[in-house]
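Quick note —
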Amino acid sequence: MSHISTITFLLLWPFLGAIVIALLPRDFRLAIRAVALASTLFSLLLAIKVFLQFDASLLAPQFVQKVLWVEAIGISYHVGVDGLNVGLILMGAIVAFAAACVSSEIETRHKEYYFLLLVMIGGILGAFASLDLFFFYFFHELALIPTFIMIGLWGKGENRIYATYKITIYLSIGALLALIGLIALYLHAGGTTFDMIALTKQLSDSPLAPESQHLIFPLLLFGFGILVSLWPFHTWAPLGYAAAPTATAMLHAGVLKKFGLYGLIRIAIPMMPEAAHSWMHVLAFLCLGNILFCGFVAMRQKDLLLLIGNSSVAHMGFAFLGIASLNLIGITGAILVMIAHGLLAALTFALAGYLYRQTHTLRMDQIKGLLPQIPFVGTVSIMALLAGCGLPGFANFVGEVTVFFGAWKQYPFVTALSVWGALVIGGVYMLRAIRTIFHGPANEGFNKMTDAVNPLTRLPYLLLLGSLLCFGFFPRLLSDKIKPAADAVAKLAAVARESSQPIESTEATVTASSKIASSVPTSKQ
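Predicted structure written out below.
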């Protein structure tokens, strides 16, 4: 290993910060918080550097680090970025720094909290940067463990223990299904390497038998789907997020939940395109449950956190719809939705956490007329809620519209209902929340609220909101980087779509697969 890649440095900072915090005395509260802020800030600066220096014209992964670990079974520490994950890594680093900034709410066990927070952040960034199946899964599980502990120890409300058990059971089942699918994929592919890039090229040249694809793909679809809160396996999410500490909800809802969507785009579809084509109609139907059912549930909520949690699940339906389209526009839109929703979910949960600290309740029938009391937080909250119902100018609008254009040809009925869900259902519950919480006469008990006036206090909200506006007004900053990699995935799926016979017996399909495989380069620096 001649040098250490920028991506490796990006991943190392949270883990190094966690080690330093473990060594610091418990009483050094300011030092512990300073280490957490510095670690996440350095990772964010490196993520910005990677994003700005990323060259979309090069199809091969960039900023690559590969170190052989277990030669006998082909496991390597292999990290890098391409169009599929460069934006997700940037979004994850932004949310991580914002989460560290808002963690001042924690009043007990600061050392343990910040240690777990940094381990969670390192696991999240590692999962999206990994180009090896083993480390891809390992980093995700590493991030999940602190999630469960933090909800149980620092969670809010009377239901936090129940929420901890529920989220643990659901996510463990989803992770187990995904693990079985990944092991089966590895074995059916020959059991020689866990390298995602090598496996994609190998399975383009020599596709898996259709029987194997149809056996493995549903394991990944529903395993990853549970992790993303695919309807009807979604009920863990709103309850878990309502009970979680603010930073934990920001990181899981905003970033870690995108692991399953990323896994479908990175692994399941390009490596098993024929099975993907067969199952996408099911996925398109299920995503309506996210968009419509969870949207109606959000309309009935009286608690702001439960409204945001159900809204978060509903927005995952748009990403699923984009993936189900299996074309360039839809897949690009799905990744845009993932990035935009990650920023928005982090912002809304951060704002909800601020309101909770001020009012000690988030029942919308109790907190009313807050805008005159907290003009800065109120204004940012209104903008965030408007972004949640797809207002133009925010990145969410760009992602959703791109998904609708991509999905219209394949699923016009589903797309029409999804548009209605976004405009009507989403508009109703978001606008009603704005009217109830921030306008009208204020309750007497909340006339002494304090606004965020300190620059450091305002920084996480401005960072997240500014990112949403930046990518909303200049979407090509993301789309130009995503397009080449999304196009490669869409072309692999198109091979299966155009074939009316099994992949291995169709001469035209094999020829097309070979051409695509030749355009899937090996990793390089």
